[in-house]
Amino acid sequence: MEKTNPIMTANNPLAPPERHVVLVEPEVHWNTGNAGRTCLGANATLHLVQPLGFSLDSRQVKRAGLDYWPRVDLSVWDDFDHFLDGMTPAPEEICLFAKLGSRSYRRMPIKARMFLIFGSETRGLPDAVLQRYPGAHYHVPITQDIRSLNLSTAVGIVLYESLRDASPWHGWPNITEA
């Protein structure tokens, strides 16, 4: 069955934006389940780059994703190079998110097709990934009171920011954009 997308861009209502959330070596099943649920709600694809710090068969992942997990558009990749070979993102479609990213996520360029890439909860993105795309480093601003945001929280903030210019939409009836 073909995936339908209710999100339409303001400058081309016939071309819905294509969003990909990429978690590189995620370690915490709850974060992955929550990110999957957010991706489903935003009509985005979730990509997991191995190794994973948990089993996708674990009930914790399914519990975090609730009964939505089977409907998440999910791809699992052996490593980052396999992901790149399989998806062939253009360099300008890639945004890397790291605590020490040089620019705020609010400055990421909004494209029709975007790959929002996040690292593991404890190590972040591997240096090899960061070095491959030196002009694509972004961060979500935080105070010095915390080390970092929760991974699934950062995913939600960035994913919905990337959809800011999309035409208003909501999947529930009788809810309109003010």
The CATH class: Alpha Beta
In sequence order, what are the helices and strands, one letter per element?
Answer: EHEHEHEEEHEH
CATH architecture: 3-Layer(aba) Sandwich
**Name given to the CATH homologous superfamily:** SPOUT methyltransferase, trefoil knot domain
CATH third-level topology: Alpha/beta knot
Average pLDDT score: 87
The geometry reads as: globular
Roughly what fraction of the amino acids lie in strands? 15-25%
The computed structural class is alpha/beta
Main sheet: strands, sense, barrel: 7 strands, parallel
- For the secondary structure, the number of strands is 7
> How many helical elements?
5
SSE layout:
Blueprint: E1 18-24, H1 29-42, E2 45-49, H2 59-64, E3 74-77, H3 80-87, E4 94-97, E5 103-104, E6 113-118, H4 127-132, E7 137-139, H5 151-162
Parallel strand pairs: 1-2, 1-6, 2-3, 4-6, 4-7, 5-7
Which characteristics define this entry?
5 helices, 178 residues, Alpha/beta knot, alpha/beta, 26% helix, globular
Structural notes for this entry:
It is a single chain. With 178 residues, the chain is of the alpha/beta class. It has a seven-stranded parallel sheet. Strand 1 (18-24), helix 1 (29-42) and strand 2 form a beta-alpha-beta unit. Residues 1-11 have low confidence and may be disordered. Helix 1 runs parallel beside helix 5. The chain has one domain: Alpha/beta knot, CATH 3.40.1280. The protein is built from five helices and seven strands. It is globular, with a radius of gyration of 16 Å.
